[in-house]
Amino acid sequence: MTLNVQFSDTPKRWTIFEGPLNDAFKAQGLDVDLSTDHAPETVDYVVYSPKGPVQDFTPYTNCKAVMSLWAGVEKVVGNDTITQPLTRMVDDGLSEGMREWVTGHVLRHHLDTDLDVNRAPGDWTPHMPPLASERGVTILGLGELGQACAETLLPLGFPITGWSRTQKDIEGITCLSGDDGLIEALKRAEILVLLLPDTPATTNIINPETLALLPDDAVIINPGRGPLIDDDALLAALDLGKIKHATLDVFRVEPLPEDHPYWHHDRVTVTPHIAAETRPTTSARVIAENIRRGEAGEPFLYLADRDQGY
Ligand code: NDP
């Protein structure tokens, strides 16, 4: 039986995902008609992006699962028209991308490489950063991506503290949870990495009170989501010199408007939501595996928890 899979993302993404998805379906032995314009009632699975045309799933009466191409599902997890299982993206390409982006920015701030990049001709002033073992890194969010980053930073010597909703036990990492755990995690955060999802419980988790707990001259790196940060509070902390630098990849409004103060602040680095892209080849394998599972009556991988919102 041929399965109808609806691809719902931008036309540009269709051009780069169509081939890898079809290859992955074949590799799984699945007979799939992948299209952007199936009749809704004939669709077996929807490959979903918040930027795609399908946001009302009411007509998709025979759809067995909605599969997000994004790891963060805040834009879809509350969609009441989805009565089917909703999966999010967890794949090696995303994890590798995030490991590299976070490690690069941690090392930039740890080594203060900006001093050398911007060094004037003839300026021979040396600088000696602490060793990694002397620089505490805290990661808020110890899920797929937070753990991948922790595993990469740990062998470099950084003492890693992680904070999550449920208590974890990961070798080499100080794992904390709960309100007291957050306080302790922030106190240790000379470099703070935000890899929490955007949920009602995490909105503005970086606010005047939590910023005050950070060591002086702390650096904040946010590849998580924009609403994790109270922007006015962060800008005030930067202006006061409490926070040395913020590297921000995600924002409440994207693209970040040109007149936003973040673009114009000397100690803010803006990147355009590029920390980790969903890569066609690796993510296609995850989608195909999940469709295989759906057809075999096996549990789907990476189900979003609608009660928790991620
Ligand atoms: P996961 O769901 O695997 O991990 C989320 C982590 O956050 C978990 O450790 C979870 O705790 C923790 N968490 C959630 N809510 C709370 C809370 N209220 N208090 C404390 N901890 C909490 O997600 P991923 O690691 O795959 O992705 C993380 C986020 O990264 C995504 O939601 C997305 O927003 C962002 N992202 C950004 C990208 C970019 O390019 N900038 C690309 C991909 C993702 P527990 O382990 O107990 O469940």
From TrEMBL:
Sample GO molecular function, one term: glyoxylate reductase (NADPH) activity
Keyword Zinc-finger appears in the UniProt entry: no
Domain spans labelled D-isomer specific 2-hydroxyacid dehydrogenase NAD-binding: 122-275
Keywords, alphabetical: NAD, Oxidoreductase, Pyruvate
Known EC number: 1.1.1.79
Keyword NAD: yes
EC category name: oxidoreductase
InterPro entries, per the entry: D-isomer_DH_CS (IPR029753), D-isomer_DH_NAD-bd (IPR006140), NAD(P)-bd_dom_sf (IPR036291)
Protein name, as recorded: Glyoxylate/hydroxypyruvate reductase A
Source species taxonomy: Bacteria, Pseudomonadati, Pseudomonadota, Alphaproteobacteria, Rhodobacterales
